[in-house]
Structures are given as C-alpha cells and as structure tokens.
Amino acid sequence: MTDTLLLTINNHPLTLSESLAYLRVAGKLQPFLMEIVQQYILKQETSAIANIDIDTVEQYIIDFRLQQQLVKPEQFAQWLTANGMNFADFRASVAFRLKVDQLKAQVAEPKLEEYFTQNQRLLEQVVFSRIVVDNSNLAQDLRQQVEQQGADFNQLAKLHSVVDDAVVGGVMGAISREKMPDFIQAATLNVPPGQIIGPFEIDDLYCLLKVEEVVSATLEGELKQELENQIFEEWLQEKLQQMNVQLAIE
User: What CATH number belongs to 125-215?
Assistant: First the structure.
C-alpha cells in the first residue's frame, strides 16, 4: 500500500507512517489515537440528534467573539488562522459542540439525581480559617489559647501564621470535601462550625484549621454542570474501553 503524504517540513515530505512513528517515539501516539476514537464516538452518538438551528449557532459565535475579545473582523480572522481554521470550519465545530452538549444532557439527566444523592456529603463545602506555624509546640499552645482562654483564632493567625493569608486572619474560603486531602476530609466530616482541628503536619509546617461554616450542596448552577461533565466523562470512558481499535499502519 502506498504511504500517504501528510505534510512537508522545509520542503521535505513527511508521510503518514513517518508521522505516526514520530508520535510513537515521543510517547504521544496512544493519546493521539484515543482522541481520534473519542471524536469518532461523539460523531456516531450525535448522529441521531437533530441539526442545531442556524440562529443558535450564530448566537454562540457572537458570544464567543465577545468573550474572547475578537469583535473586529481582522482579530477574528487572525485567531482562525492561528488555530488552523477558516470560518466554515469554526462554524461546523460550534454546531458539533452544541450537539455534544445535547448528548451530554441526555446521558447525564437520568443519572444526575442519584449521583448527587450518593455524593452529597463529599460535595459539601467547608469554609476554613487556618494558622500555619513551623513549631508543633507553638501550634498546640495556640489551640489551647483559643479553646481554654477564649483567644480569637483569626487574631492569632495575624500574629503567628507564616503563610500569606495571615493578613486576613487566616481565612481560606470554601473548599469542597472531595478536593480535600483524605486526612482532612476524615477529620472534618462531623465537625460543627466553630471547632478547631489539628495541628496537622504538612511539608514540615503545622496547620490548625478552624471550621467557620459548612455549606450544603445543592443540585444547581456550577455544581450541576460539573456533575453532568463527570457523568458524561465516565460514560465516554466506558465507550472508549469497549472500542476495538487496530492501527492499520505500522
């Protein structure tokens, strides 16, 4: 079989098999092939979805250009060229992306409520303040000052903490339980607001955490979209595992 010319580099022709060999040597052939298979799956699965109407596509393009500050035609043209596309390519990619969004909703919707219920505790967010010091005895002493002498945790953070958030009293903001290290996740699971945990040794420093607030998870907004993405990604990975892929060019 005649090898297919793929591209030229400084007028030197590079065939498809040579290009794949370069990817193999670089350790990037497998991800490259999986991306192709993934696009194949999405194309097959979206084939039954009705074409997106032109007004929806055009509105998406307008919104995209505004968000990316590509309002001027010459700016948008330069962006298209830099990304190896013409306008027809870009419009087709937008229409395909919108069909994939519909597919995602179809896949995720039947599983979303159950998935949320099963993971609701892990999806809670905890608002922390912290004190980080370089001495374990000092950390223990600071905890005792708060719990036994009524000292103000945030004021102690300003005085003693060695990390940047000391200037705001150690306030860290909200962190979802699923993104916490396992030992902190376990230590905070049934801790009410106002309680201090630790000190924990982390990177040769000692950290006290005060639980300021526990924010219950609700199935809406960004969290709903994040869960839809997770469910869809799991579905897509299952589809990938089921594919019988054979490379026809060695």
Answer: 3.10.50.40
